[in-house]
């Protein structure tokens, strides 16, 4: 577990450096700050969010 957290720390360092040296608008790797509400509206409750659960139920 220690090596996983160590690796994650370095990945974060690389993301910060990439953001510092990047020219132009930054493309967020995850949900951009302040965009959580919009993301939740478009994903939760949509057919895409239900697909995995319904496929799992069908296979049982």
What is the percentage of strand-forming residues? Answer: under 5%
Q: Quick one: biggest sheet? A: none
Q: What would the principal axes of the Cα set say about the shape? A: flat
Distance between the termini: 33 Å
Radius of gyration: 17 Å
Low-confidence stretches: none
Individual helix count? 3
- Secondary-structure element string: HHH
Q: What is the mean predicted local confidence, pLDDT?
A: 80
By secondary-structure content and strand pairing, the structural class works out as: mainly alpha
Q: Bin the helical content.
A: 55-70%
- The counted number of beta strands is 0
Describe this structure in words.
The protein has 60 residues and is mostly helical. The chain is built from three helices and no strands. The longest helix has 20 residues.
Please summarize what this structure is:
The protein has 60 residues and is mainly α. It is built from three helices and no strands.
Record keyword descriptors for this entry:
60 residues, mainly alpha
What layout of secondary structure does this protein have?
Blueprint: H1 2-21, H2 36-43, H3 47-59
């Amino acid at each position: 577990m220690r090596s996983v957290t160590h690796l994650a720390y370095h990945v974060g360092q690389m993301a910060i450096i990439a953001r510092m040296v990047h020219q132009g608008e930054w493309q967020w790797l995850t949900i951009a700050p302040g965009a959580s509400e919009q993301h939740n509206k478009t994903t939760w409750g949509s057919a895409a969010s239900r697909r995995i659960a319904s496929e799992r139920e069908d296979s049982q």
